[in-house]
Design brief:
Strand content: under 5%
Structural class: mainly alpha
Shape: globular
Order of helices and strands: HHHHHHHHHH
Length: 141
């Protein structure tokens, strides 16, 4: 793993730790708005990492949240918003599942799995390193 990825993971893990701490606050635990889950510097830090954080967000969905209410809150009410804030119009929740937390969570995980979201710069870097895979990238030119 490269140094940049290690730094990103470290920064992401630190932000998640702070976000969990935020979600242990009484206002968040007993609040009725998912806005309180996102209203913290740690959430904004994760979003500021951009597209590179999407694989880490996907990985966070798979962490066991049993006996970890803060993580459960983040998985149910924060990660989908982070994906939407990062991906913008490329990620839209279908009208038919809005308000259904488990369905939205499943949809978001599936979207992350299917899109393997890469920035244009990342695609260009891979193209440069993989000249014999031009056939694979022909549609992205």
């Amino acid at each position: 793993m490269g140094v940049l990825m290690e730094e990103l993971e470290s920064r992401f893990d630190s932000a998640v730790k702070k976000w969990k701490s935020h979600c242990r606050d009484q206002e968040v635990l007993f609040g009725s708005s998912s806005e309180t889950v996102r209203d913290c510097d740690a959430y904004r830090e994760i979003v500021s990492m951009g597209h590179s954080s999407l694989p880490l967000i996907r990985k966070l969905y798979d962490e066991n949240s049993q006996n970890n209410l803060a993580l459960e809150i983040i998985q149910a009410h924060g990660l989908t918003s982070a994906v939407r804030d990062i991906a913008g119009d490329d990620f839209t929740i279908p009208e038919s599942i809005r308000g259904k937390v488990d369905a939205i969570k499943s949809y978001t995980k599936k979207w992350l799995d299917e899109n393997k979201y890469w920035t244009k710069e990342e695609v260009e870097r891979v193209k440069e390193r993989s000249k014999d895979l031009d056939w694979f990238f022909k549609d992205s030119k």
